[in-house]
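Page 37, continued from 36.
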């Protein structure tokens, strides 16, 4: 079997998603003959320019150099994977309303500071993305499943079910039955329901599940919280997701 050339790039992010590769170090070592990590800043100072069979990009582009980098990565790669929610949706940094961005930059850096950064966007805003692997951070098991598909020449199938299915599999009590709410019913699964299992509600970091009924979520969650709080929670990760943007457009 031909050795697969892999590249991993990071932009504006916390690097938590690419560190999941280290969590798989034993599994990757076992598949060492299948992979060649041709470019990864955290592993080596070497910087191959490609071509690459598969490129993982973590983070959101916020500078002109970032945009140039993702376009070069696209040109040099057969497959592009948006790694994590920053790459897939713009991340937490994209949740800030654009109307408040300039003011916040002033508060942090001072009135004389002239920002050259762009508004955070998902990678697919600038280039075509072949696979989205969301999460904050991504799930180690999902990354392993993707790599297994790549090495076997099979197509990686993105998850189509919501977090609720994983909650039920782990015998979690639904938060809606405890006078609370979470975004699990409209959030894409793949995390193993880690937050509800550990006493937290789902914040939607994997983005909306296919066919997410956001209107129903607003109607039900409205019994537990006010509209602004719910909107802020939805836009924490959903803001740049096509399903959410379509919903907002139809509602206008």
């Amino acid at each position: 079997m031909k050795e697969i050339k892999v590249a991993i790039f990071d932009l504006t992010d916390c690097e938590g998603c690419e560190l999941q590769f280290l969590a798989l170090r034993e599994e990757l070592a076992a598949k060492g003959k299948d992979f060649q990590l041709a470019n990864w800043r955290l592993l080596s100072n070497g910087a191959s320019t490609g071509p690459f069979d598969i490129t993982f990009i973590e983070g959101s582009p916020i500078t002109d150099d970032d945009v140039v980098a993702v376009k070069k990565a696209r040109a040099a790669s057969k497959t592009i994977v948006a790694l994590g929610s920053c790459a897939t949706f713009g991340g937490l940094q994209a949740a800030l309303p654009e109307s408040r961005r300039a003011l916040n930059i002033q508060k942090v850096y001072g009135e004389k500071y002239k920002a050259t950064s762009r508004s955070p966007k998902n990678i697919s805003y600038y280039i075509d993305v072949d696979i989205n692997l969301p999460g904050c951070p991504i799930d180690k098991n999902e990354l392993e499943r993707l790599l297994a598909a790549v090495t076997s020449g099979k197509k990686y199938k993105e998850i189509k079910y919501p977090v609720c299915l994983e909650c039920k599999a782990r015998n979690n009590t639904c938060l809606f039955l405890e006078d609370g709410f979470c975004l699990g019913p409209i959030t894409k699964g793949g995390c193993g329901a880690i937050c509800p299992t550990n006493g937290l509600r789902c914040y939607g970091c994997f983005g909306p599940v296919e066919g997410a009924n956001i209107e129903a979520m607003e109607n039900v969650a409205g019994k537990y919280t006010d509209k602004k709080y719910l909107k802020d929670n939805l836009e924490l990760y959903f803001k740049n997701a096509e399903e959410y943007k379509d919903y907002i457009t139809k509602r206008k």
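The chain has two domains: 4-152, 163-251. Flag for discussion at group meeting. Residues 163-251 form one domain.
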